[in-house]
Amino acid sequence: MIGYFARRLAAIVPVAIGVATLTFLIIHIVPGDPVTAMLGESAAPADIVGMRHRLGLDRPILVQYGAFLKGLAEGDLGQSIVYRRPVSRIIAERYPATLELAAAGMLVALVVALPLGFIAGSRPGGAGDIASMGFAIAGISIPHIYLGPLLMILFSLDLRWLPLTGRGGLAHLLLPAITLGTALAAILARMLRQSLVAVRESDYIRTAVSKGLTARAALIRHGLRNSLTSVVTLVGLQIGGLLSGALITEVIFSWPGIGRLLISAIGLRDYPLVEGCVLAFAMTYVVVNLLTDVVYGLIDPRVRYA
Amino acid sequence: MSGAARSVSLALGGSLVAILVLAAIAGPLIVRADPNAIDLANSLAAPSAGHPFGCDQLGRDVLARVLWGARLSLFVAIVVVIASAAIGTLIGVSAGLASERIDNLIMRGVDIVLAFPGILLAIALAAILGPGIRDLVIALVAMGWTGYARIVRGEVLTLREREYVVAARTLGARPPRLVLRHLLPGVAGPLAVQATFGIGGIIGAEAALSFLGLGVMPPTPSWGNMLDAGRAFLLVAPHLTTAPGLAIGISILGFNLMGDGIAQLIGIRN
Q1: Main-chain phi, psi angles of B61, to 5 degrees
Q2: What is the pLDDT at residue B196?
């Protein structure tokens, strides 16, 4: 058991270093000079040299890379050019908002997907199945950038039930969470349906029914549990989509998380902050993947010994 | 999915995609309005006979802009998918045929690119490369090739042990011939499915990047930047977001249904 977790933990170290390296390469090697971009094409050469020196960009690339990795290990992501504060501190302030949104989006997805998937999977071909899967197809196809404004028009501007933008209590959270969670709900509902349809044919369900359980009770008592492991797997696989969806949702609803921070940092050409936000997103994904593996190992012993 | 549902999704998806392609090719020829012609007298005009989808804040015809946006979206998506599939196939075949060490090395590289959630890598690249269609394509390809590489590698690992491939190798077929004659035909099916879903995915990603101001820049019409501009007028002119929003949704729906249909048709579970 401990061996399994240690192996998983060890496996993410190279990926984490790789992610940091690729982020570094994108910011430092890709054509396009951040300093010229920050100061503008007409900046005085002396200003450009000064800024390059201040950011440490005049050092050899390997030295910069070494300093970058060392700083990363110590939690130091450099100084924001615009805010003139440590990047790590700015990100730490905004990070809870992103986590809150992602968690709420996941909750919406599960609350919607589990009943829909069950209704669809317990009677394939029935009216409930067709309606649920119709929702699922629509949910997968509607992009965040359209669903968000649509919900704003309906619930904030027309009905005036919910606030338009910003972060506050539950009322502020609802529309962004629905915007973010809908696509995932659709994907999970489809998966649960598919899995339940397969389970319905299995011997243990037939046995349970022949022992006197109704088909629906057998599916709830025995089928659902088995189908849920595939849902957990899929949740893990979809976290990446959830995180990048959160980034876009934050921009739509002016949600003060690291997604909106990243996009505004790009606009302000604050490259240390851009680098920090990209790393924060990618590392979150790496860690969440590790946690998913751990949860999976706890649920299903076969995984631990594989 | 039952046989009937399969043919329904293939037919419906195929029809939606056909409409999209037709709109992209013929639309701008039929609707002759200049998508960039400013007419402030018609600013935020509601849909009417003269302007079926209404006008935007600068009085530009929304229908014309949606149709030109279709052309651009589809063009970007197809170029990105072809380039991603080509690069992914090359890397996937190389990994699948290489020694275990090289294969491991390549796949760890793929893992690192995949560790960037969703469109984050494209956002980071677009941020540094700057806006513009060429750089947008580069950013989307950098994000998109990994899926193809994984699929092709997986297929090649299975196919290379098949008797006909072993026989060809025993008979002295060189790697290029082996790949072109014996391996690629075997991976064509899964690649086609991935590419069909991929076009829908790239249409969504391109729209998202343009929405964020990192892709196609105004005044060039793209569904993403139209949605972004329309957000400021949600209350007074909701048609500005409805038209491009539905266009994106219907396009993604079409390619998703078509991908589902093709996958079922050739017997691939996705």
Answers
A1: -70, 120
A2: 94
The structural domains of chain A, with segments of one domain joined by +, span 2-73, 88-299
B195 alpha carbon, distance to own chain's centre:
8
* ipTM here: 0.87
SS3 A213: coil
Residue B207 contacts A, CB cutoff 8 Å: yes
CB contact residues (below 8 A), chain B span 143-202, against chain A? 200
Direct distance between the N- and C-terminal alpha carbons of chain A, in angstroms, rounded to an integer: 11
Is B2 within 8 Å of chain A by CB?
A: yes
Of B230, B234, B249, Cβ closest to residue A141: B249
Q: Which residue of B has its CA nearest to A157?
A: B235
Of the pLDDT bands very low, low, confident and very high (cuts 50, 70, 90), residue B270 is: very low
CA distance B205 to B56: 23
What integer is the mean pLDDT of A5-31?
84
CATH architecture of the domain A88-299 equals: Orthogonal Bundle (1.10)
Please give, rounded to a whole number of angstroms, the shortest distance from the CA of B37 to a CA of chain A: 25
**Alpha-carbon distance A105 to A110, whole Å?**
9
Residue among A14, A30, A140 minimizing CB distance to B125: A30
Q: What is the pLDDT of residue B209?
A: 95
Give the whole-angstrom CA distance, residue A73 versus residue A69: 6
How many CB atoms sit inside 10 A of residue A7's CB?
11
CB contact under 8 A, B248 and A145: yes
Nearest CA in chain B to A268: B127
* Spatial separation of the C-alpha atoms in residues A133 and A136, rounded to whole Å: 5
- Chain B residues with CB inside 8 Å of A248's CB? 208, 211-212
A297 vs B122 pLDDT, higher one? B122
Q: In sequence order, what are the residues at sequence separation of 6 or more whose Cβ sits closer than 8 angstroms to the Cβ of residue B150?
A: B88, B92, B110
Contacts of B129 in chain A (CB under 8 A): 30-32
Dist. CA A103–CA A61, nearest whole Å: 39
Residue B47 DSSP one-character state: P
Contact yes or no for A18 and B111 at CB 8 A: yes
pLDDT digits (tens, 9 = 90+) for B162-194: 888 888 888 888 878 888 888 888 889 889 999
Q: For the whole model, what pTM was predicted?
A: 0.89
